[in-house]
Specification:
The protein is mainly alpha-helical. The protein is built from 10 helices and no strands.
């Protein structure tokens, strides 16, 4: 390796580390503004709300089943767990428990339609459970199928919601990183008027966009790059 390369091993690893540090700072700033910007924490919950609402229908007359939370309270409980970032598996388990508690003979037909199970069987299951009667084999099988379908529906909506949340937070962190990079460029160039008419503006935007993807891997990438350069230097020695 020649010593007069425009981008040396040291400067390249420093650049990668600095860009990764900017991404880490952007994620940290995003976490700091979450308490004053509640919609960020609620990102992705809309899909969960739709699925759970379809699985917690009221009885005739819009009455909630006895010994069960009303649909609005069920949604609020799950939303609080989502906003607080509780373990995803625990959130799904709580949601399924609240849905099964909501099952009654008065709403079983509507719930069966949402879960695509036999409405007559599910109504019979709800009636037997309410009266304390043991389930027959066919009712037990129907309830097991209902449980499996509800589990699958909740798993789908929670995984999709989690993906939406992670994608949006990454995008917001990237916006913050770009703003920080532009602010830093303005400070270095001595003001916006000079910075805006230089090629540094495009460079700042590029650095900001690279910051969040590099943040989790910046240290490993810079170390790997330094190792690769050292290896090539040893290989090319006469």
């Amino acid at each position: 390796m020649q010593a007069n390369l425009p981008l040396s091993q040291l400067s390249l690893t420093q650049i990668i580390s600095a860009i990764g540090g900017l991404g880490t700072a952007a994620f940290g700033l995003l976490e700091a503004i979450k308490p004053v910007c509640p919609p960020i924490n609620r990102t992705g919950f809309g899909g969960i709300k739709r699925t759970v609402s379809s699985l917690t229908p009221p009885e005739a007359g819009a009455r909630p089943p006895i010994n069960a939370l009303p649909q609005a309270k069920v949604v609020q409980t799950l939303e609080s767990n989502w906003v607080n970032g509780n373990d995803l598996g625990s959130q799904k388990a709580i949601a399924k428990s609240l849905i099964k508690l909501h099952l009654s003979a008065g709403n079983a037909a509507t719930l069966a339609a949402a879960a695509n199970v036999d409405p007559a069987q599910l109504t019979a299951v709800a009636a037997s459970m309410a009266s304390g009667t043991a389930l027959t084999q066919s009712q037990s099988d129907a309830y097991s199928r209902f449980d499996l379908i509800v589990t699958a529906m909740l798993d789908e909506c929670y995984q999709y919601a989690d993906q939406i949340y992670r994608n949006w937070t990454r995008a917001l962190a990237a916006v913050i990183a770009v703003v920080l990079a532009i602010a830093g460029g303005c400070i270095v160039d001595g003001g916006w008027s000079q910075f805006a008419h230089s090629r540094d503006l495009g460079l700042a935007v590029l650095v900001g966009l690279l910051a969040t993807p590099l943040a989790p891997i910046a240290k490993d990438l810079s170390t790997a790059l330094a190792t690769a350069v050292n290896t090539m230097q040893l290989v090319k020695k006469p």
